[in-house]
Design a protein that fits this description.
Radius of gyration: 30 Å
CATH superfamily of the largest domain: HUPs
Number of domains: 3
Structural class: alpha+beta
Number of helices: 15
Distance between the termini: 68 Å
């Protein structure tokens, strides 16, 4: 009823700029007939109409159906279009109550916004302040046919249970409850806006999309820490993590012992602490050693000015004040995968010292250390390729005005591409 009324409203307000879409979840035997009814009404109103069938995955049926529906919307929405939905005041109040029962915070209790600007789409809900009674009155005046989905009364689903059993009982006791609960959602939206302003300040001081400074985080109040962690864990996902998940991140990762290998997995991301920084990584980033393997020994030629790809990233061969001899250009050199136990005599430093110590001093992240390769000619170490750059080694092959590889982009940017070697 409410969606069909919305179709009539849009045909009056924007007759030449509106399109309708009917999502057939294929969960009801008559859903195809309902699509035909929508198509008939749209044709009568001269509104273009799309009937889109979707498949709903197993699991939480309400959530999976919602996800399938919004994925279908995104397929058809153009960049300059709004998605207009028929949610009304009772929907808003039900949403707040259901989120309250799930333990939501301020952002969850803010429920639905009349104008909801998201990264992937903008949603407009023109009926959000209208009661269901008002919608019924308008529908009766217009006299159009509509369909009532029987699942709307199936109390197996949380929202239907709320509407069919809880709602009448609450409304009998509190007649103005619907408007009052909806009003609370708008007050929560104001509070959420204020909190978001605080969050933006904290984010700029402490975080980037993939890293979070734990020293600066510790300077915030406990409440602001929780809010920042919740938003940072969410990333580009639609929903924030639960309170329990934020608590797990704090106790299991941030407050873990310094030598602990603590990792928390949430929403296809892995949260890992190294030194005083927290990282959000994809599976590919954290386990790149398993996904992007390369031989223990490779042959490589270098030419001045060329760009090369090695495991640690992308480098350009350039002239430096002190560098490798020009007689090595065009010659077959070897790249050796780090095995452990190697020592290096870095140019400008006294004596040999463990390569492991150099790696630790450079604070190369543990999950990137497998990309380190040693450049060798005739069993003489020339230098080391690392995600932090090329480390020149002391050798008889150094000269003034020689060449060195200069880092262009490290392996964080490069893992999504295939490695290319001249063997």
């Amino acid at each position: 009823m409410d969606s069909m009324l919305l179709l009539y409203l849009m045909s009056e307000l924007f007759p030449h700029r509106s399109r309708a879409i009917y999502i057939d979840h294929q969960l009801q035997s008559r859903s195809g007939e309902w699509g035909q009814l929508v198509q008939q009404h749209a044709n009568a109103l001269n509104i273009a109409c799309i009937v889109q069938k979707v498949s709903v995955e197993a699991g939480n049926l309400e959530q999976q159906a919602r996800d399938a529906r919004y994925q279908a919307y995104q397929q058809h929405l153009k960049s300059n279009e709004f998605l207009v939905l028929a949610h009304h005041q009772q929907d808003q109040a039900e949403t707040l109550l259901l989120r309250l029962f799930s333990g939501a915070g301020v952002n969850g209790l803010a429920a639905m916004q009349q104008l909801d600007v998201r990264q992937e789409m903008t949603i407009w809900r023109p009926f959000l302040e209208l009661s269901r009674e008002q919608i019924e009155q308008w529908t009766a005046q217009l006299g159009f046919d509509y369909v009532t989905d029987p699942s709307n009364h199936d109390t197996h689903y949380d929202r239907a249970w709320c509407r069919e059993q809880l709602w009448p009982m609450l409304q009998q006791r509190f007649p103005k409850m619907q408007a009052a609960v909806a009003r609370s959602s708008y007050l929560m939206q104001d509070a959420a806006e204020i909190l978001d302003q605080v969050l933006q300040v904290d984010w700029q001081q402490c975080a980037t999309n993939h890293q979070l400074d734990l020293i600066k985080l510790a300077q915030l109040s406990a409440a602001r820490q929780s809010q920042l962690l919740s938003a940072w864990m969410k990333g580009n996902d639609q929903y924030r993590p639960s309170y329990d998940m934020v608590q797990r991140l704090q106790h299991e990762v941030i407050l873990a012992k310094p030598d602990a290998q603590a990792i928390l997995h949430f929403n296809q991301h892995y949260f890992v602490r190294y030194q005083k920084t927290l990282y959000r990584l994809s599976y590919d980033e954290l386990y790149a050693e398993k996904l992007f393997s390369f031989p223990d020994t490779l042959s490589q030629q270098f030419d001045m000015g060329e760009t090369i790809n090695v495991a640690a990233g992308q480098f350009k061969i350039e002239t430096q004040k002190i560098g490798l001899s020009s007689r090595l250009l065009g010659r077959e050199l070897r790249l050796l995968k780090r095995q452990g136990g190697e020592k290096i005599h870095l140019y400008g430093r006294v004596g040999h010292w463990p390569l492991k110590k150099a790696i630790q001093e450079a604070q190369i992240l543990p999950w990137l250390r497998h990309t380190i390769q040693i450049l060798v000619v005739d069993n003489v170490m020339l230098g080391v390729f690392s995600p932090k750059g090329f480390w020149l080694a002391q050798s008889d092959y150094l000269e003034q005005g020689g060449w060195q590889p200069s880092l262009i982009s490290d392996c964080n940017d490069f893992f999504q591409q295939s490695f290319s070697y001249d063997e």
